[in-house]
Amino acid sequence: MVNAGDMNGSGNLMDFLDEPFPDVGTYEDFHTIDWLREKSRDTDRHRKITSKSKESIWEFIKSLLDAWSGWVVMLLIGLLAGTLAGVIDLAVDWMTDLKEGVCLSAFWYSHEQCCWTSNETTFDDRDKCPQWQKWSELLVSQSEGASAYILNYFLYIMWALCFAFLAVSLVRVFAPYACGSGIPEIKTILSGFIIRGYLGKWTLLIKTVTLVLVVSSGLSLGKEGPLVHVACCCGNFFSSLFSKYSKNEGKRREVLSAAAAAGVSVAFGAPIGGVLFSLEEVSYYFPLKTLWRSFFAALVAAFTLRSINPFGNSRLVLFYVEYHTPWYMAELFPFILLGVFGGLWGTLFIRCNIAWCRRRKTTRLGKYPVLEVIVITAITAIIAYPNPYTRRSTSELISELFNDCGALESSQLCDYINDPNMTRPVDDIPDRPAGPGVYSAMWQLALALVFKIVITIFTFGMKIPSGLFIPSMAVGAMAGRMVGIGVEQLAYHHHDWIIFRNWCRPGADCVTPGLYAMVGAAACLGGVTRMTVSLVVIMFELTGGLEYIVPLMAAAVTSKWVADAFGKEGIYEAHIHLNGYPFLDVKDEFTHRTLATDVMRPRRGEAPLSVLTQDSMTVEDVETLIKETDYNGFPVVVSKDSERLIGFAQRRELILAIKNARQRQDGVVSNSIVYFTEDPPELPPNSPHPLKLRRILNLSPFTVTDHTPMETVVDIFRKLGLRQCLVTHSGRLLGIITKKDVLRHMAQMANQDPESIMFN
To answer: Which positions fall inside the CBS domain (predicted)?
Structure first.
């Protein structure tokens, strides 16, 4: 590009574009980033900083600040994610209890906090204290009887509807991207796709507020998945404060990978599980440096949450348990059965939920998101209230199902018939026959299980923040607890059977039903998400049960095998495909024997490839080509006759460069020649100034020959994160393959609709 008065056109384009003019190197919405280019730009930036650091003390200090900026961003993400998670936990606790009553001494106290502060609470009636009043006691001064029950029932439904309506309205009006789990979109963004606004400040604010509302409303959803989205919003916000990350989309994604780890760390109180979750489930590009930084961010986030102590038990999670009985080899059989159940539940859930979400997208149902949320909330509240296991929050339910029955437990699940002559330590109570409370609880759990299985299918995917971890764990925990009680009673009544004889003597504490609930929870979560390593680590960090790793591993692997037998996709991959995001899953295998020439465009019978020539097109020709096509870039060739490839020019950068030149340079007009060579072409006298665009030309575009197997091309796209790849034959340009073409071809080979890939 020429400077004013520079007749040879040998000026430097970047002189213009370094000034505060529209961004070069940025991408448009719903486009894919070029990983190789971002990597190259970061290397150039780093080289420049290193060479400058030797010039002066100030430049050396700036280079140190640049090196430390990554750790500072991680520290800030951890602090904010931990703080937000603590605030969400406290708010959910209070608002969930608000549906049933209010604390008179301090209305901002939850039921538990209210009774902690009371001096009149007895151990036997620790849930009852004068300061905490149900709505019926407060409004009509009755705590028992039909009228009190109906009033409490009615107000429970009204509060639930109020919370849900407020949540869906806030999402609809202020931040449409705040709905859903967020993990499918985070996976797509981390693979290099741009979704502007998805990680914005409004999304962060609205998602945090509405997450409290929807979890408090009693809907069958969790806050754990959305917390990953919240943490990634924090990561996006802090990375925009540092030019190292704000100007490089590849580096920004390294920060977002670490933020995802911090999100899981505070969601489950599992810092190591969070790092592994980011590595196994979410991230696309995860270098060793990102692993260390993820570890640091997860540590800071967990430490912050521990400082807030939202559950008042000095733990990071609500359902921390410790078991006192080892597991036995014979128990592996029921553990594996729970793994099979988890795999089958995962398959059923994914198929039914995707079918329902597709129906929502393709029918009039999708036009009424507020009505849908209100109807599902009303159905959930009406059915949930009569059953004590569905009325309480799902986290409390899981906590009770995981618990071991000690001497101090007052739960119905611990209503065993005690031997009056028993003189055992409190933490080693032998297996006992089940009392009427246990049988009653089994019926209620069975009904709650059926209800949870059905209602979760319709709840996940609505236009509100909705996580899937907790409902999946609840389904597994209920099934596991029932199996555990069954095995426990079988061992008690038939301890002389050969399978029990060796390890379960009369009067011994053999079977822990809570452990079965934990294994069932892991199996169902694994069946839905297809996690394995990170799932097991999260579960043992949750429960502190290091010696129960083998049962958890057996259940997780079994559930994955069973679920994979019916389909390889987890719930997040299924939603990615449903929404048509251009995501090349590393786990998918491509085994078809097609070649690059079968996939490239143009095909036979199509218009020839749109190209730029190195020194024979005018500014008007280039602008016409840009206007008449919607391609993201154009190959540059020597001439249209030879078609020898020179490089590749991005559409956005061509537009910016020409716009810049017209505004800032004299002599650049519509019939100015555009050239991409080092030296300007020979022009007749009195010709207008030529326009040099060599600086925006990628001189090393990735190319393959026409006979390259598509298996190799797919692998290249996955591992290098390419946007497009040029196809040549003996150096002559034949066509182009874009990421979208690869995805279309893979869909076609899998007998799916290739047009389901919606975005560029």
So the answer is: 600-664, 697-755
The b-or-e profile of 603-622 (16+ CB within 10 A means b, else e) is eeeeeebebbbbbebbbebb
Q: Which DSSP helix (H) or strand (E) runs through 726?
A: strand 724-729
Select from 526, 556, 572 the last residue of a domain. 572
Q: Which residues of 13-31 are buried (b: 16+ CB within 10 A; e: fewer)?
A: beebbeeeeeebbebeeeb
Give the pair of three-digit tokens for residue 297.
């961010």
Q: Which of 442, 543, 456 is nearest to 489 (CA)?
A: 442
The tens digit of pLDDT for each residue in 409-458 reads 667 788 777 765 555 444 456 667 777 888 898 999 999 999 999 999 99
Of 126, 148, 174, which residue is a domain's last? Answer: 174
Report pLDDT digits (tens) over 157-180. 999 999 999 999 999 999 999 998
Q: Which residues contact residue 312 at a Cβ distance below 8 angstroms, ignoring those fewer than 6 apart?
A: 112, 113, 116
> Cβ distance 613 to 646 under 8 Å?
no
Question: Does residue 702 sit in the same domain as residue 559?
Answer: no
Residue 22 φ/ψ, nearest 5 degrees? -45, 145
Q: What is the pTM of this model?
A: 0.89
Cα–Cα–Cα angle for 144, 145, 151, rounded to 5 degrees: 90
Q: In a 3-state reduction of DSSP, which class is residue 285?
A: coil
Containing domain of residue 711, as a range?
Answer: 596-750
Lookup: tokens for 333 = 């059989």
Beta 673-675 vs 703-705: how paired, if at all?
unpaired
In DSSP notation, 150-166 reads: HHHHHHHHHHHHHHHHH
